Amino acid sequence: MDAAERGQLIGGPGVIAESAAISPDRFDPRFFALFSWFVRRLLRKSFFAVRLERESAGVLRALASAPGPAIVALSHPSWWDPLVCVHLSRVFLPRRAPLAPLDRDQWERFGFMKRIGLFGINPADRKALSPMIEHVLARCADNPGRVLWITPQGRFSDAREPVVIRPGVAAVAARLRGPTVVALAIEYAFWTDRRPEVFLRAAPVEPGISGDASTPGWHRAIQSAMRRNGEELASLVVARDAGAFECLLGGGRTRINPVYDLWQSMRGRDGPIHDPRRENAA
Question: pLDDT for 160-207, tens place per residue?
């Protein structure tokens, strides 16, 4: 891709220099494959299940084949969120390289993160916004298949808080030509197993009814979509309807403790806890 083609993709000059405000990523596909394998094992060990709302699977599969760059704007309730996204990228977007901002202190502390597509910024520095946008545009110009995974709230936020986003993601979307944008809601809850479960819901984002693809237009559209998506996911989690989700990892019969379950089995009793609502929905 030459400079002119890059300019057409990002809506501006095709050559963008690296900024001192950015610690650049150095994505390594082989390392990412190895790291995603490790993440899968960690999620299986730490959570009873990773569940994706059924219609959301189609949204993510469509993202895999969408032309040009894409953005996933996700909620940020937990430390686990980036690892969950690594698994989603592995399952649904294996041919699209991830790209994501990270607090610069953490980026410097964990040097391997640049190899999975993370670049370092100082989120408290307002002057870092413009270099971040230019960095993302440059990466997308070099590889239009990149997917920007970003937490627009800019901080850990409880799933019950109203979503209020920062302007960065909208500014990036406005500068790209025809990006595909998806809102991703993440929630963690206990159902009937001793381990928690991960719940996910994805929804497409459109730049308003009028097609306003300006920064304010994208800001309103992304924030509104994230709010609605989070509310929809919360209602499904509260309903405990397993049939509303596709199980990406884990699931199956709930357990209390391996020794206790074995003892119950030897006594002719069933150790797992049963939830009639979940069984009827399955």
Answer: 889 999 989 999 999 998 899 999 999 999 998 999 999 999 999 987
Give the pLDDT of residue 269.
57
Specify whether the CB–CB gap between 251 and 48 falls below 8 A.
yes
Distance CA 180, CA 59 (A): 11
CA dihedral 74, 77, 81, 84 (to 10 degrees): -90
Token pair for residue 59?
A: 């949204």
Strand order in the sheet with 98-103: 118-121, 98-103, 147-150, 70-74, 180-189, 197-205, 49-53, 245-250
Place of tokens 């049963």: 274
Extract the tokens encoding 165. 């986003």
* Residue ranges of the chain assigned to CATH 3.40.1130: 3-251
- Say which CATH class 3-251 falls into: alpha beta
Beta strand segments in the chain, E: 49-53, 70-74, 98-103, 118-121, 147-150, 180-189, 197-205, 245-250
Residue 7 sits at φ, ψ, to 5 deg, of: -65, -40
Q: How far, in Å, CA of 110 to CA of 91, rounded?
A: 24
Segment 220-267, tens digit of pLDDT: 999 999 999 999 999 999 999 999 999 999 976 555 555 545 554 555
DSSP 162: P
Mean pLDDT over residues 16-23, rounded? 67
- 126 Cβ contact partners less than 8 Å away, ≥ 6 residues apart: none
pLDDT at 17: 47
Tokens representing residue 177 in the block: 């030509």
